[in-house]
Amino acid sequence: MAEPTPAPAPPAEAPEVAGEEAGPSKKALKKAEAKAKKEAEKAKRAAERAAATAQASAAAAEDHATGNYGQETHETKLSDDAIEISLKTLNDEHLGKKVKLRAFLQNARMQGAKMAFVELRETSNWAIQGVVAANADGSVSRQMVKFIGLVHPESFVAVEATVEKPLEPVKSCRVSNYELHLTKLFVISSAPAMLGMTLSTANKAVTNFSDEEAPAEAPVEGVEKLSIAGEVSGPPAASMITHLDNIVMHKRSYVQQAIADIRVEVKHLFRSYLRDQGFKEFEPPCLIAAASEGGANVFRLPYFEKEAFLAQSPQFYKQIEVLAGRKRVFCVGPVFRAENSNTPRHMTEFTGLDLEMEVTDYREALHMLEGVLLHIFRTIKKTCADEIALVRSVYPSEEFLLPEEGKEVRLTFAEGQKLLREEGPEEFRNVSDFEDMSTPQEKALGALIKKKYNTDFYVLDKFPSDARPFYAKEDPANPKVTNAYDFFMRGQEILSGGQRIHDPVELEARLRTKGVDPNSPGIREYVDFFRQVGAPPHAGGGIGLDRVVAWYLNLPSVHLAAYYPRTPKRLLP
Fold it and tell me: Would you call 148 exposed, middle or buried from its count of C-beta atoms within 10 A (0-12, 13-18, 19+)?
């Protein structure tokens, strides 16, 4: 019998294939891997931050100088035994002593992590170098050095320091033979990180005096400044409009401080000289009822239910003082002219130096005015020598030439015109003796007089009647001219003056000749002054302070000599 056929073996189990439900896919593995890596990096960063925080806390705990620097608060204090100093009077007696100073920080520079240099300016260009270095006892720490090195230029600070001799003179500072080793510094008022104009720019010569609005200039980063070595870096010179838009930095500049100091001295010398000559000061009003010079160049303004004017000169009031028996008077104050003249020699408001005096001959006043100006010029050459030199380092100019004593240059108006016709440029060969001079004529005549007489200062007398105001007295010998004069510096007028009419009948006739109604408001009252009392003959003049300073220094614009110049297009700041 045949053997039975064996049963077939059960099929073998199929092996597991990757990618089936039995395990994660490659994509899932990659995603998990990325997530794990991200978590690890996050943990690492957290650990680093924690370590940095711990390190900073430890460092702060080790900063033993925290009470010696920072923003000034009611708790910060300089030592009571520190000597308060002025950089102008710093001397060898201060060496090694503890001192304190409040100043503008005009420059700061780090040198490594443990040392910084600063420049501290007290006023004008009086600056000194300061040094701060981390020390072993911790009273000056690295953190303190870093803080001082990062103070914004032009911040106002209070410092405590020891006065020492530098290894060599510090060329970038006026106080070059001493330096301050800082032990404390507190910022009283911080300057912004971005300055509209840096000190180095403010100290450069202004060459653009246009009143037109220029495109806005990009702010200059505050850290751009004078280097310790004294080298000036930064942008080119700014326009006058940029200077006035950054008025504080404009006035902080060394050159503007020097000009301001010269201006103050001129005003002081004017006052002191006249007081010595028996003059008395008075204060005229600026608000008046009628135009003091006549004409259209006057500012009008509503005055309650009436109209008022800003004084074009203190003329009427000088005369009232003399009529009142004061004999010799002077005043210093603002003068307003509504002239739409946008030139470097005009302003709508300027400072007048005026005088008036009794005379027997009008030339007495001419000589008095000449004397006070020559006194001013000869004195400031000595008393303001440093300031003049500083200004000339920015605005180069030749020395202002004066006539020898006893050889003052005085020409009549006709003699000046004759000199122009005979020796001046071709365009002035036909100038008239009876028409006022133009600015180009004045400058051309100034050049001729300098060449002929070796002086920048001179007088023109006997101006034509048509060129003078209604109160100017005519020359009895020649009614076509007046007993009136102008003074000039470098060919530009700085003073007008002369004898005034003191007889009311003559004054009324002169007013009518000038086309002015003697009975108009303000004028009628002026004429009445001379009817009320007997009036002594008198003469005087008005000097433009801004022009005197500007032309003595030969500045490119009178605006540089004014504190806050006012022009037809400028009422700010």
Answer: buried
